[in-house]
Every structure is written in structure tokens, then in C-alpha cells.
Amino acid sequence: EAAVTQSPRNKVAVTGGKVTLSCNQTNNHNNMYWYRQDTGHGLRLIHYSYGAGSTEKGDIPDGYKASRPSQENFSLILELATPSQTSVYFCASGEGSYEQYFGPGTRLTVL
Amino acid sequence: GQQVQQSPASLVLQEGENAELQCNFSTSLNSMQWFYQRPGGSLVSLFYNPSGTKHSGRLTSTTVIKERRSSLHISSSQTTDSGTYLCALEPGANTGKLTFGHGTILRVHP
């Protein structure tokens, strides 16, 4: 059973629209992370969380919000999507400084 | 400058050859992880290796903190090894935040 799942797997949005990407983990890890992957930039950290109710800004948080309503769920929210946010988004879970486990990714296209 | 440098950027092998992938870093190190990614795929963890040497089948990871480097050795390569190999480190802050290298693209020909 996949321990980190993401939905949707593919999404097409319009500029100015709201987009919510969801992540669920069954690892019972305290930490969860949102990254985006772009050619030429590699993977970059957007937001992360140390537990339910907590969110922290990563390296590139502008234009994104995050929500961690429970241990299992961590969402990434684009209130006003822009074409520059077209990317592949990965969610991951981990415990402290130990190994991180990644979800399958969400391919987002903003037109 | 970039904190994590991977080399080579790309590598082409004939099946059966060995490969050595390098990851050099300019910051302190709390943890190091190696991932494998197929085109369009997710990241599969190969090694969590903050120091020393670890083995898994045909793969060996070695991290030498004082030399600020980590390596991934692939022996007897197979066509199914083709893909991108990424290293990621957590700078010494115990946050779990990973900084990734840009990866090495490996192609193994039959």
C-alpha cells in the first residue's frame, strides 16, 4: 500500500483560479513537505509542517499557502494561480532528520 | 552558489559497466539521502546515509562528511537503471528540510 498519496494526479487550472493540492500519508510521520520540481531548478521546498495545525515557510513560499488539519493530511493552496506555477508538485513525509518518503506527484498546468 | 553539486550531469553506459555518481556539498550536513526518479515518475529512496558506507544489491553509497562529499556506485549496470539520480541533504539544523542537487541523468544502453 502506497504510504504517501496525492490528489489530483493531474490538474489544469485557469489563471486567477484557486487550486488545492492534497496529500495523505499513512506513515504516522510528524513532518510533511511540499516541493515543486522544474527543469533547471530541481526540487525546491515550498512549505512544510511539523504536525497538525502547524505550517512553516520553505524556500519559495510566495503565492502558496499550506494547511495541515490532521496528522495524515497536508494541503497546498494556490489562491490565485499563475502560469509560473505550472510545475510538478511532490508531497513527502518524514520523521525529524530521517528518511523522507515521496508521493507520486501532481502535474499542474495553469493556462 | 549552489549548496549541492552533482556530477556528472549526465552519463551514458553500456550494460554491464559500472558508474560512480558524485554529490559535493558546501554546507554542514545533518543527513544525506539518495533518490532515483524515472521520467515522469516519483522519487524512490535508495539510501538514507548521513555518514559511512551502505550497500543495497548492486548499489553502494558512501558519505564522507569531512570531505563534504557523498557518492553512489552502481555496479554491473542494467538498462532498467536508466533514469535520474538525485542527492539531497539536510544542512545541520535538524529541521528535516532537504536541499536537492540537480541530479545525474543516467542512460544504460543494451
How would you describe what is shown here?
- The complex is a heterodimer of chains A (111) and B (110).
- Chain A has 111 residues and is mainly β.
- In chain A, 0% of the residues lie in helices and 52% in strands.
- In chain A, a hairpin with a 5-residue loop joins strand 9 (87-94) and strand 10 (100-102).
- The model of chain A has no long low-confidence stretch (mean pLDDT 95).
- Chain B is an all-beta fold.
- In chain B, strands 2, 4, 5, 9, 10 and 11 form a six-stranded mixed β-sheet that branches. A five-stranded antiparallel β-sheet of chain B has the order 1-3-8-7-6, with no helix packed on it.
- The mean pLDDT of chain B is 93.
- The A-B interface holds A 31, 33, 40, 42-45, 48, 58, 90, 92, 94-105 and B 30-31, 33, 35, 41-45, 48, 50, 86, 88, 90, 94-103.
Notable features of this structure?
heterodimer, A: 111 residues, mainly beta, 7-stranded mixed beta sheet, 4-stranded antiparallel beta sheet, B: 110 residues, 6-stranded mixed beta sheet, 5-stranded antiparallel beta sheet
Topology:
The complex is a heterodimer of chains A (111) and B (110).
Chain A: E1 4-7, E2 10-13, E3 19-25, E4 31-38, E5 42-49, E6 56-57, E7 65-67, E8 73-78, E9 87-94, E10 100-102, E11 106-110
Parallel strand pairs in A: 2-11
Antiparallel strand pairs in A: 1-3, 3-8, 4-5, 4-9, 5-6, 7-8, 9-10, 9-11
Chain B: E1 4-7, E2 10-14, E3 19-25, E4 31-37, E5 43-48, E6 52-56, E7 59-64, E8 69-74, E9 83-90, E10 99-100, E11 104-109
Parallel strand pairs in B: 2-11
Antiparallel strand pairs in B: 1-3, 3-8, 4-5, 4-9, 6-7, 7-8, 9-10, 9-11
